[in-house]
User: Fold these one by one.
Assistant:
Number 1:
Amino acid sequence: MSNKKTPPPPTLPPSFTVSDNLCLFHKGDLSEDIYTCPKCKTIYCLKCAIKAQTDRKSCVKCKQIVLL
Ligand SMILES: [Zn+2]
Ligand SMILES: [Zn+2]
C-alpha cells in the first residue's frame, strides 16, 4: 500500500514577491510621482530619487547615478 501524502508547498518569504509598484530605495509602494532610471528603467518614487541624488546614491539595479 502506497498512500503517499504530498508535502505542503514551501512558503516563500514575502521579500521574494516582486512588485512593479515597489520602490527599491525605501522598499515600499511607489507614490504618484515617480522617477525612472534612464539606464535600466527601474522606477522609484520621485522623493526617494531626490534624496538619493542628495545622498549621492545610485540606482539599486544598475548603479547608474540618479540624475534629475
Ligand atoms: Zn538603473
Ligand atoms: Zn521610494
Note: The CA atoms of residues 20 and 57 lie 21 Å apart.
Number 2:
Amino acid sequence: MERVLIVDDDEGLVYFLRRFFSREGLDVCTCGSGTAAVETVSAQPFDLILLDYKMPGLNGLDTLKEIRRRQVKTPIIVMTAYGTMETAIEAMRLGAYDYLLKPFDRQELQRLSRDALEVNRLMKEVVDICEPGATPSASSEGSPARIVGSNRRMQEIFKLIGQVADKDVTILITGESGTGKELIARAIYHHSHRKERPLLAVNCAAIPETLFESELFGHERGAFTGADRVHIGRFEACHGGTLFFDEIGDMPLSTQAKILRVIQYGEFERLGGTQKIKTDVRTIAATNKDLEREVAEGRFREDLYWRLKIISIHLPPLRERMEDLPALVEYFRDRFSREYRTTIRHVDSAALERLKSYFWPGNIRELENCMRRAVLLAPGDVILKEHLDIGQDKPGQAQSESPEQLSTRLYRNLEDLIPDLLKVSGTNIHGSIIDTVERVFISKVLSQCGFNQVKAARMLGISRNTLRNRMKKFDIPGAQDGLP
Ligand SMILES: Nc1ncnc2c1ncn2[C@@H]1O[C@H](COP(=O)(O)OP(=O)(O)OP(=O)(O)O)[C@@H](O)[C@H]1O
Ligand SMILES: [Mg+2]
C-alpha cells in the first residue's frame, strides 16, 4: 500500500486530507510540525508528502530543504495561500514536485497527487538488467524489476545502456508498442548518476497542443488569457534530473524547435518572459513511430531527429526474439504468483508450445497480461493450455505486417549483421559478403523445399542451371530426393 505523509498544523485540513487519501486507497500518516516531519521522513519511507508552508517552527520551505538534504526524493506537494506565489516558486526551485494554492478543490488535489504518485512509482522501482545465463527471478517487494533478455540484440542493448547510462547524453528509444521502451528508460535512469534526482515523464500524446509549451517551459503571469499566475514548467522543475519524453513522435512541430534548443544549450524562457532560464536536464525520448518516416513526411523536425538519434536504442518486437519467451514466461509466472500469492509453480509444456506459436502483436505487454490472467485463473499449481487467453492463430498472421514494416525489419536485421559480415575475410570484401549471404540463403531455401531443386529454383526466381552452379560454387550438398 502506498503511503502519504501530511504535514500541517491546521487540524481541519488534516482531517479532510486524511479522509481524501484514505478513500484513494493510501495509508495516511500525519505530522503537526516541520520538525516532526523531518524526523518521521528520516525514519520511514513515503510515496508522497503534502507539506504546508505556514507552520510554527520550521516553515514549509525549511522543512523541504531538510527533507531533500536527507536524499529523500519522494514527491513533495507544497500547500500555500494565494498571496504567496513567490514561496511556491521558491519551493519548486528547492525540489518540490508541485504546489497547491489554498483553497484548492478535490479535483485539483486528485490530479496532482495521482500524477505525483505515478512519478514516484517511476523513480522508486529500480530496474535491473538480467545477466546473460542468469535465471530471471521476479522482483519481490523492494527488489528490482528486471529486463529479461538473452537474445543477442537485447544483450547489445544492455551493453549500450551500460556504456551510456551515466553519461549525460540524450537517448532515443524506439520500438513497437509493448516492447519495453519505458522499462529501458527507467533502467537508464537507475544506472545514471542522476538517480537520486527526480525523473519526470511527459506523455506527449496526452497533452493538448495548446498547453504543450506552457507545460514544458512554464509561463509568466499574463502570458496569455487565463494565465493569472506564474507557472513553472517541467524543464525548470526537473533541474538536475531526468526528463522522459514518451511518445515524442506526437510532439507538436512548433515545440520541437524549442526542445532542441534546450537540449543543445540548456536554456529557455517561460512563455511571455524574456529572462533566460538555465536548466540542467538529461533527456530520454521514446516513440513507437518510425521517426525517419515522420521526418520524410514533414511531421518531425530533421535537426531534432538527428540530435536524438546520436544514441538510439531500437527494441525488437517479441516475435523476433522468441528465444527469450520461456525466460519471460517464467519471470511473469514467478512475479504474479508472488503478487497474488498463488501456488502456481509451473507452466505445462503444451501451454508453453502454444505461447511459442503465437505472433504477439502486443509484444511483452500482451504476454504479461496473458500470464497475469493465467496465474489468477489456473486452479492448481500448473498453467495449462486452456488457461491461456490468446488470440486465435491466424495462419498468415506474420503477413499482417505491412510491406513498410517488413522492409524496416529486414533493414534493421541486416544492419545488425554488418559487423559480423565485415569480418568475412578476403581481398574482395564486397564480393565475399554477397557470396556469404547468397550461400546461406540458397542453403536455407533448399532445406525448406526438402532439397527439391525445381521448387527451390522457382522460389528463388532463378533457373535450375543457375541454382546448380551456385550449389557447386558454394559447395552446398544437395540431398538426393528432389533430383530428377
Ligand atoms: N524485457 C522485459 N523483461 C521483463 N518485462 C518486460 C520487458 N519488456 C517489457 N516488459 C514489461 O512489459 C510491459 C510493457 O513495457 P513498457 O511499458 O516499457 O512498453 P512500451 O514499449 O513503453 O509500450 P508502449 O509503446 O505501449 O508505451 C511493462 O509492464 C514492462 O515491465
Ligand atoms: Mg510506453
Note: Residues 429-448 form the longest helix (20 residues).
